[in-house]
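So, can you check these tokens?
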Amino acid sequence: MGLAAQLVRALDFDPAGFVSWSADGETVGWVLPETARVLGEFPEVFRLYGAALALVPRGRAARSAALERVARDLARRGLVSGWRDERYAVGAAARGGPRFDLERSAMRRLGLHMRAAQLNAFVRAAGGVRMWVARRSPAKAIDPGMLDNLVGGGIASGMDARGTLVKECWEEAGIARALAERAAPAGRLHVRRAVTEGVHDETLIAFDLALGADFAPRNRDGEVSEFRLLEVPELVARLSAGEFTVDAGVVAIDWLERHGLAPPEAELGALLARLREPGPG
């Protein structure tokens, strides 16, 4: 399929097929029409304005509590699965702090923007550079068994990208704090795509970390089934074949392009330009 085709998957979103919903007069999410009908059953939480929905409660605490009730009802109906008891903050801190917090497993169903920290872990050797990748456990709720970045994780409420990366480095690959803190910020990539339950809308905050040739990752949280150290040609082949999750593929392809290792493809640069967003890592 090629690398460009993988990036196209990360941009596969057409708002025409969704119902938007807003908070404070600004769109914060998109939901499928069938989900919108369920949300309409909570008039104390969502109000219909024309063809769009608006959040009724005011204030972070009241909104979070109301949306918690909605998310639990969606879970009861089978519309939300894999409940994590982990909250994500929604809303930019630059605009006065998050608008509300919501259970992680409901974010896609409600089409809300998330953030994640992702690590490009590589090894330089005489034979060239290689990248460590992980295979997701077959028990994972999302993308089971697919190839992934060595380390990656969503940024929960109260956490930042660096703190999340350090935490996930230890849990997913046994990378100690002192080593994890050497990871260098490498930019931000914004993916937005339609998924079965709604919309996956996420900013991927990338980090690069050079590891020694003697390093061997060790999973500690049970979410990885195996690790592989791939030479660049095999990495490109597996990315091109769609063996990676969409998010991990975007981060790895961006790494290849930044290091001059990506094969020439006509649309690659333009697609990466659309995915890259300004701002510090």
Notes: The CA atoms of residues 17 and 33 lie 8 Å apart. Residues 60-76 form the longest helix (17 residues).
